[in-house]
Design brief:
Blueprint lengths: L10 E3 L2 E3 L3 E3 L21 E7 L12 E4 L2 E4 L8 H12 L6 E5 L4 H12 L6 E5 L3 E2 L5 E2 L4 H14 L4 E4 L7 H10 L4 E4 L3 E3 L2 E2 L4 E2 L6 E4 L4 H12 L6 E4 L5 H9 L4 E4 L2 H4 L3 H15 L18
Parallel strand pairs: 3-4, 3-18, 4-7, 7-8, 8-11, 11-12, 12-17, 17-18
Antiparallel strand pairs: 1-2, 5-6, 6-16, 9-10, 13-16, 14-15
Amino acid sequence: MSPAASVDLSVEVGALRLANPVIAASGTFGYGIEFADLTDLNRLGAIVVKGLSLEPMEGAPAPRLVPTAAGMINAVGLQNVGVRAFISEKLPALRPYRTPIVANVFGRTAEEYAEVVRHLEGADGLAAYELNISCPNVACGGIQFGSDPRMAAGVVAAARKASRRPLWVKLSPNVADIGAIAKAAEEAGGDALTIANTYPAMSVDFRTRRSRIGNPTGGLSGRAIKPISLRLVYEAAKAVRIPIVGLGGIDTAEDVLEYFLVGASAVQVGTASFAEPNSCWRIVSELEKLCISENINKMSKLRGTFQAEKH
């Protein structure tokens, strides 16, 4: 038996079994197929495609990305081709790959979330849905679904009625009590949580007196947010029983293990893919070597083993 064969990187996110815990995050990996010539898609744990809405969206004005000292600010504006075009034009190219495909879903109302899911239900080649509830509900004056437990539960419940596939719920970090939102999503029928989305941020140029991106504000991601997102995963894991997918600043195998210690069952890699399209594959390779060196024979056994009290 080779050394690598002695390491079991497989994990389970609810009913979904992944060959390894490294997932390409939504919004950073296109529809997946764009990266086929840049990395081995079959080596990834899963791919979450960019957010899908009921109708096509043009997104925010350019420029949409700006680097920061330890990450990136983006304001893409949820640009996408719409759920119907995704099913007819993008999804067929993904079906030959064995990597599970997760469709990220968003809408302006709970009914729109459910309608997008209903369209996807008739399509083959999807393993799960990820509900982005960091979106403003236009029917309630623009309040984010993910900022209120009742609104979060309403979206998840609507999608649950429409779906026979697993539902992951992607939470916003901009809440006072992540545990309360997590619990609401769980009780409404969520099968797993993705924690967390980006943090509101700005980048301004004092010479032009304008924003460096097309919008005044955007979302901060990358290395800078890892310590904050790590805490959110830890807090949410104490509140729920369903699996958590950790997201925020992951760029190394060590990052993956740290998220597992505080309760994650898998992780998503986002910003790192912009600088290095092959980052997910690299992290998987690093993870195998690190587990061997640390005598970790089964990845999933690390989950939740963080010791809060020092002895």
